[in-house]
């Protein structure tokens, strides 16, 4: 019957799709291509299929197969993509954008630019307004390629100077690329979202032409506008810009403080700690200790010599002055149950000593203060250092033994 035929047909399509999925998961691209061919042929006979579903499936699966198939060529990929553009008006701009990405990944920059330019001129009734966001993305990526061209022209001028007609033509081309890039990049970063690469390129353009106020305004908007999602990179870019232009220490610390609140394990926490330690204000020096302790809570920092050196330096200063031991105690209280196994085991002492003597020295100093002279890490490293007749390890051992009462006060 007609009903049974439809049910069997639907079931066979689902089975075919599962075979395609299985082949793709096992990276059997030839087999996946064969099943996709069967699937497309079956759709041609299926008059009940909804228009939206199949073209989306074929586009996604077909693109993935062509990207990995051993006998796939750029010519075939381009042909397939053009076919997909005609299958679904609602996805036209998305397919164009993906096509441009594929061309860029294969080094075909000019072709990608042409593809984006054609997509930008596309119009289809009400769909043009509905796909406004996709159109802005198309324009933004074309702006990114204009920036790329501008950057190449700029490097030519910087390398060869500005003499002669040839350089004048290069400069004219560079300014033309700048105008086109700036217009499109400026538009995309007005929309709330994560636009890191677009912001960086736009700021680079503005800086090159000396428009520092506009660049700073863009970065402040990107970092502090509540409509934008929380983004650590926004504060990194702002900090780097402020540092390049010699802005006040207060501005730099403000940018890094927010970055610390969002990502306490960020690599710039070394800069933050160093700046805070130099401050004359007690609160900032206390924050410096908090920052470096927080960074070392993360596994990625376990063997960071600079971080351990910063902590060792500040801990040593506090111990010698016998002021603000409560700062150390406050940080250590929440960590004393897990830091010993995480940082100061005998196994780590052996490994650190073998791989990096300076790291083992800095860690041994911190371990000796926080866990006392009987700490496994401190005992092993100081013993090996003295055995190797390295003078600073003898001094380290005497220092920790002398200040062992500090450990009792901290752990108390």
UniProtKB/TrEMBL annotation:
Chain segments annotated as coiled-coil in the UniProt record: none
A GO BP annotation: transcription by RNA polymerase I
Organism, as annotated: Ciconia maguari
The protein, known as: TAF1A polymerase
GO cellular component: RNA polymerase I transcription regulator complex
InterPro entries in the cross-refs: SL1/TIF-IB_Component, TAF1A
């Amino acid at each position: 019957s007609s009903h049974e035929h439809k049910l069997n047909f639907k079931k066979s399509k689902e089975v075919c799709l599962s075979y395609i999925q299985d082949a793709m998961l096992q990276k059997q691209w030839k087999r996946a291509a064969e099943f996709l061919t069967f699937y497309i042929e079956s759709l041609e006979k299926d008059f009940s299929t909804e228009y939206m579903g199949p073209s989306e499936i074929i586009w996604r699966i077909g693109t993935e197969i062509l990207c990995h198939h051993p006998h796939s060529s750029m010519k075939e990929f381009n042909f397939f993509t053009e076919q997909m553009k005609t299958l679904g008006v609602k996805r036209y701009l998305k397919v164009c954008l993906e096509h441009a990405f594929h061309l860029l990944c294969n080094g075909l920059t000019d072709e990608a630019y042409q593809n984006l330019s054609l997509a930008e001129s596309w119009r289809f009734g009400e769909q043009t307004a509905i796909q406004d966001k996709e159109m802005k993305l198309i324009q933004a990526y074309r702006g990114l390629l204009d920036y790329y061209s501008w950057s190449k022209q700029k490097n030519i001028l910087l390398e060869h100077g500005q003499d002669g007609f040839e350089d004048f033509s290069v400069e004219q081309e560079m300014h033309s690329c700048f105008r086109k890039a700036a217009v499109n990049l400026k538009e995309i970063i007005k929309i709330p979202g994560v636009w890191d690469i677009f912001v960086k390129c736009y700021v680079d353009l503005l800086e090159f032409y000396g428009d520092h106020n506009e660049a700073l305004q863009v970065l402040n908007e990107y970092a502090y506008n509540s409509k934008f999602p929380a983004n650590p990179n926004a504060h990194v870019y702002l900090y780097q810009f402020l540092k390049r232009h010699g802005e006040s220490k207060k501005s730099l610390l403000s940018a890094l403080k927010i970055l610390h609140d969002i990502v306490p394990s960020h690599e710039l926490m070394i800069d933050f700690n160093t700046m805070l330690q130099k401050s004359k204000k007690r609160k900032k020096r206390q924050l410096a200790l908090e920052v470096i302790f927080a960074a070392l809570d993360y596994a990625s920092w376990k063997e960071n010599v600079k971080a351990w050196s910063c902590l060792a330096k500040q801990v040593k200063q506090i111990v010698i002055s016998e002021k603000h031991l409560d700062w150390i105690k406050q940080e250590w209280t929440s960590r004393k149950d897990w830091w010993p196994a995480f940082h100061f085991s005998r196994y780590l002492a052996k490994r650190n000593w073998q791989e990096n003597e300076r790291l083992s020295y800095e860690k041994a100093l911190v371990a000796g203060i926080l866990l006392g002279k009987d700490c496994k890490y401190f005992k092993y490293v100081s013993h090996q250092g003295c055995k190797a007749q390295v003078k600073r390890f003898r001094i380290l051992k005497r220092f920790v033994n002398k200040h062992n009462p500090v450990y009792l006060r901290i752990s108390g």
